[in-house]
């Protein structure tokens, strides 16, 4: 890996917001950064109008680009205009599931050109971005990762896991308990005019770990645009209303897809619900659609109630489970003060942090469901604390999806008294599993 001097000799870091120029068109540096990001994620080259739309979506999200530019590019190389490494961030609220939230530095678009690997680009970009995040007042950073082994060394811990599931239609119905409300088929366009966002806001408020969506994700999940920038032609939609009212409290978008072995299935694109009743009813509707064999959903939460609702729970298969949201604590007292707790208690926690932001020994006091974390020392006093762990593991614990008892069993959380992890588990317990259906 290159040292700091080598890095500065070869690269220049530039930071700027995505923007339009005086003529209303995207600035050349914004378009070049967009092209570099698309190359890094193997995306096809969009048409000019799609590039302009994407830049304007990033402007709406208040996205900042940090790029590593080669100082002396080879003739004809894209490095003459493109950054060799890209990194962006923007503000994004993370829900605590009780109507409160915390603003996060949401990190995205992390790429490094293969020609520039192992030269310290990612570390330099990450270090500068987190420093800027602290300066801008963020108490926590977040990201969703395309690779699961990159970010722990920077203090990020996997805080939400999601499942890809398949439900076999032939075994699923009838449900063990009757559903309620009214499901209606609608056009995707019906959802665009405020309906979908109103339902998402209610879902977001009740779902710990949920994060507000990027501007550019809405046309994709509602089916008004495909990933190629052209209008989607295969998206269908339905909504749920409670029996005693007209307000939509859930919606689903889906498409029909061919499955392995010649089966036909429904692939859920977006399933958003403000009530458990809406969730169950929309699933029952999908499983009632003729001429399909299975329903696939790639955003199922770990405590999915459908498993208990099915007439035969063997109809439910888990195809894959993986990390979704990763969290990185930057200001531990601020983060813990923002979070609700299930039970009261007091613990001393020693935190190691290679980058220094959350390092130290802290006293967590929870009274009436609200916590106060007081820093006792800048030193990590593992011997004198009830619990000792790395900041990455603290990030994993924050939403309650990962148990401190499990981390103790794994050897990454130290506790002299086995009662301490049990107490912390009770304090962090949530009404339902953390759930996020937002990618960024």
UniProtKB/TrEMBL annotation:
Domain Enhanced intracellular survival protein: 332-435
Molecular function, one GO term: aminoglycoside N-acetyltransferase activity
Pfam families: Acetyltransf_17 (PF17668), Acetyltransf_9 (PF13527), SCP2_2 (PF13530)
SUPFAM superfamilies: Acyl-CoA N-acyltransferases (Nat), SCP-like
Subunit field text: Homohexamer; trimer of dimers.
Keyword Nucleotide-binding annotated: no
Gene3D superfamilies on file: 3.40.630.30, SCP2 sterol-binding domain
Family per similarity comment: Belongs to the acetyltransferase Eis family.
Domain Eis-like acetyltransferase intervals: 209-316
BP-aspect Gene Ontology terms: aminoglycoside antibiotic catabolic process
Active site: 151 (proton donor), 440 (proton acceptor)
Residues holding acetyl-CoA: 110-112, 118-123, 146-147
The name this protein goes by in its record: Putative acetyltransferase
Superkingdom per UniProt: Bacteria
InterPro entries documented for this protein: Acetyltransf_17 (IPR041380), Acetyltransferase_Eis (IPR051554), Acyl_CoA_acyltransferase (IPR016181), Eis_dom (IPR025559), NAcTrfase_Eis (IPR022902), SCP2_sterol-bd_dom_sf (IPR036527)
Keywords tagged on the record: Acyltransferase, Transferase
